[in-house]
Design a protein that fits this description.
This protein is 60% helix and 11% strand. It is α+β, with helices and mostly antiparallel strands. Strands 2-4-5-7-6 form a five-stranded mixed sheet. Strands 1-3 form a two-stranded antiparallel sheet. Helix 4 packs across helix 6 and helix 6 packs antiparallel against helix 7.
Length: 398
């Protein structure tokens, strides 16, 4: 189950990248502020103070806000964490904003007074000033350098708080996206597991019916069939809930099932399996070929008087894997629609849709030499390629 999103997941501490971004933002703002102050002080009073003073004050003010930004972001996350008593939280934010505005302005004013009463201010500022600066020049300059007043700092607090709200909402949105993706994955897994669970008893019952048909006629054959059936059951249990297996592993299971069918038809069933070298390592849905072979037996081989023949082919075509199962029965005219072919094929179609979406197909058609050919087309991928894709997706989500 997926736990609901809480504040600990969304309002997480600032990352190193975010901290660097905050530092870079306030540094840029300090540079712009310093340049603006120097550009606005071109009269004679500008010469009353060193050029480094307005620059130092600009950086001091902005870096002070850089230190306060994580605190303001935390307040934004705290406000969004619980929507109860919103008016109380708004009141708290207003009070905190006023306190921060007063504190920042007090610090800035104290530093301005330090520069104003420093050694430079006592050298020639009294009568005419240094370099001919007019009386009162330093006072005018420092009144400009005092920068934003309390109201300006209060508005700046709400601007930073708005950025914190935006960050918090973005984190919540991304967390909900991850939860939605995880939920969809879990639903798909549940559907596949249900389909797989439906297929196992269906396969077992049909095989047991084949065994029961030979109990009186061929007891020795029945014993062989039961031995093969136990191997098949062990295979299905060992596979567990694994939805995709290597094609060579699927063929090993299918050969045991075909041996049971050959015993049932008293060696009047011929099988021909041809697998391309490039296709053996491909991933296929588990138990994907058995329903096709079962359909070929039920609607093909079982409907003719002579020997039956089932051909199984697998080949790679660029980025697709093509699997075919054909028989020499009366043809597909007995099956009007794919859904009419029984539980096995309907189940197979749904599993393919769950695993591959629109990138797959399952068709029944008349074979060139007569009979029916079932064709499955799925994306070609190996276990190594799938592992690489999963790792890439995991890194992209981080």
């Amino acid at each position: 189950m997926i736990a609901p999103t809480d504040s600990s997941e969304t309002s997480k501490p600032l990352s190193r990248t975010e901290l660097l971004g905050i530092f870079a933002f306030w540094t840029l703002l300090a540079l712009l502020t310093a340049a603006n102050r120097l550009a606005d002080q071109r009269d004679l009073s500008f010469s009353a103070v060193p050029r480094g003073v307005p620059i130092a004050l600009a950086f001091q003010q902005m870096y002070l806000w850089a230190l306060l930004t994580p605190l303001v972001f935390w307040l934004a996350g705290w406000f969004n964490a619980d929507q109860r008593k919103t008016w109380v939280k708004v009141l708290v934010l207003i009070v905190v904003g006023i306190i921060i505005a007063f504190t920042v302005d007090s610090i800035n004013s104290a530093l301005v007074r330090v520069f104003e009463g420093g050694p430079a201010s006592g050298r020639g500022f009294g009568r005419g000033g240094r370099h001919g600066a007019p009386p009162g020049g330093p006072a005018i300059v420092f009144s400009v350098l005092r920068g934003p007043m309390i109201l300006n700092h209060f508005l700046l607090f709400w601007s930073v708080l708005a950025a914190g709200f935006a960050r918090d909402y973005f984190l919540r949105f991304r967390a909900r996206e991850r939860e939605t993706a995880l939920l969809q994955t879990q639903l798909a897994e549940a559907k596949l597991s249900a389909l797989h669970a439906q297929l196992n008893p269906h396969f077992l019952f049909n095989t047991l019916n084949a065994v029961s048909s030979l109990v009186e006629r061929d007891p020795r054959g029945v014993r062989r069939m039961i031995a093969r059936l136990s191997e098949l059951l062990r295979y299905t249990l060992d596979a567990g809930t694994e939805h995709e297996v290597v094609l060579s592993q699927e063929l090993s299971f299918l050969e045991r099932y075909l041996e049971i069918m050959q015993i049932r038809f008293q060696d009047k069933l011929e099988t021909d399996i041809q697998i391309g070298d490039a296709a053996r390592d491909a991933l296929v849905p588990s138990l994907i070929l058995q329903p096709l072979v079962e359909n070929a037996v039920k609607h093909g081989v079982d409907k003719i008087a002579g020997p039956g023949r089932i051909a199984i082919r697998a080949r790679r075509e660029v980025d697709q894997l093509v699997l075919t199962v054909s028989d020499n029965g009366p043809g597909p005219s007995r099956i009007a629609k794919l859904d009419d072919a029984g539980v096995g094929l309907a189940n197979t179609r749904q599993r393919l849709e769950q695993l591959y979406g629109s990138a797959q197909s399952l068709t029944l058609a008349e074979a060139p030499d007569g009979g029916t050919i079932a064709c499955i087309v799925i994306p070609y991928r190996t276990r190594e390629e799938l592992r690489t894709v999963l790792v890439s997706d995991a890194r992209a989500r981080q």
